[in-house]
Write a structure and sequence with these properties.
By secondary structure, this protein is mainly alpha-helical. It has one domain (48-330). It is 79% helix and 1% strand. The protein has a two-stranded antiparallel sheet. Strand 1 and strand 2 form a beta hairpin.
């Protein structure tokens, strides 16, 4: 009876994590799309300063992680010093900025799909630079994802979707997304290196360090450089409080979503988190298509299914590998 109760609590906690991640990031996606396509005020002005979203997100997540450390940290030391995150902070500033900037040129569903193909640069770098050999099923996953994204990019986008974009330019938009993935790969590798050197580093330490440097770099970029548009972004928010509110909600969604991701990884492992976030991306495309007026053709839905079929198969392969490892440990 006790075991049954513990199992039920675990299922309820997992359901809570799924609901939290889906709600936070799907709503954040809606807000991101709104800020990149909506025309504010009587003049119908667009919010052109999308890089400002990264600065706002960094500031909110910096404050959030500091509060979480003060509330939940046991006061132990041994985590990575704040200055060790400077290099990862650079790529973590440039990468997401490119991903958000891409929304000026391609639709939100196209951006989500392109950013779902993270395995492609990882496998290319692994095989070409480090000589890593991958299995046939792993290459099949990559082929499905790469083929789906490529076919989606080549298919004609509806005129209704194109009319909402600030400057339609598919090659530039997809190029920015893939550069985002490349920078994300370096960021993840650097974070892994830091946690290997400082094993006592927890998720909140990483969040604090990354967002501290992100805040510094983005302030310099937005307010310190001649072409920076930070003051214009602040002025736009003063003139259009609705945009300021959307930005605040966008940032809070990101911070809350991080909470649920950390909770999921700590209680259920990274595989469960990957599964939840992958399905969330698919739902985000459905929500964007149905609610935000980005209609997809049957062929485009076929490409979306192809990409998420490849991602689902990848998750299944990881699950099988995990089962084999656990079996070996038992024997």
């Amino acid at each position: 009876m006790e075991a049954h109760g513990a199992g039920l609590r675990r299922v309820m906690l997992l359901s809570f994590c799924v609901a939290g991640i889906w709600a936070a990031y799907i709503y954040q996606g809606v807000l991101q799309e709104t800020l990149s396509t909506k025309k504010f005020g009587e003049e119908g002005k667009r919010f052109e300063h999308l890089a400002f979203l990264n600065l706002a997100q960094n500031v909110v997540c910096l404050v959030w992680s500091y509060i979480m450390i003060k509330l939940w940290s046991n006061g132990g030391s041994g985590g990575a010093p704040w200055w060790t995150y400077w290099s990862a902070g650079i790529t973590n500033t440039i990468g997401p900025a490119m991903g958000i900037e891409a929304l000026k040129y391609i639709s939100y569903p196209a951006q989500v799909l392109a950013k779902s193909s993270k395995m492609i640069p990882v496998m290319l770098m692994g095989s070409l630079v480090y000589g890593i050999r991958y299995s046939l099923p792993e290459y099949l996953c990559t082929f499905l994802v790469a083929g789906g994204v490529s076919m989606f990019a080549l298919l004609k986008t509806s005129s209704k979707t194109i009319s909402k974009l600030a400057n339609p330019n598919a090659p530039l938009g997809y190029g920015l997304c893939f550069l985002n993935l490349a920078f994300d790969g370096f960021t993840n590798a650097t974070q892994d290196s830091i946690t290997a050197r400082y094993p006592k580093t927890n998720a909140w330490d990483i969040m604090l360090g990354m967002n501290l440097w992100g805040t510094i770099y983005n302030i310099v970029y937005m307010f310190g450089l001649p072409h920076g548009s930070g003051f214009e972004a602040v002025q736009f928010c003063k003139q259009h409080p609705e945009a300021a509110w959307d930005i605040l909600m966008y940032c809070l969604c990101g911070a809350v979503g991080q909470n649920f991701i950390f909770l999921t990884i700590s209680r259920f492992g990274s595989l469960a988190n990957t599964t939840i976030t992958t399905t969330r991306k698919f739902v985000s495309i459905v929500v964007s298509s149905v609610l935000s007026g980005n209609p997809l053709s049957p062929k485009q839905w076929g490409c979306v299914s192809m990409v998420f079929g490849g991602l689902s198969y990848q998750i299944y392969l990881k699950w099988r590998k995990l089962q084999r490892v656990q079996k070996k440990k038992k024997t």
